[in-house]
Amino acid sequence: xxxxxxxxxxxxxxxxxxxxxxxxxxxxxxxxxxxxxxxxxxxxxxxxxxxxxxxxxxxxxxxxxxxxxxxxxxx
Length: 75
Prior knowledge:
By secondary structure, the protein is mainly alpha-helical. It has helices spanning 2-9, 16-25, 27-34, 41-71. The mean pLDDT is 87.
């Protein structure tokens, strides 16, 4: 249910106790993912945002490279 509430209304709409309970139940997952069981959903979200920003920068560089090739004088 939390994923639906979070999706529709944002993570801040989730009950802090519910988040804490879920993070406690997922400590082994966080240890596996981050190497630290005390990292939680916020860390996961931050890493996802960073990955998306990095991918956007790479896509922009690819687009610039293609634009340069397409706009080059063929002579």
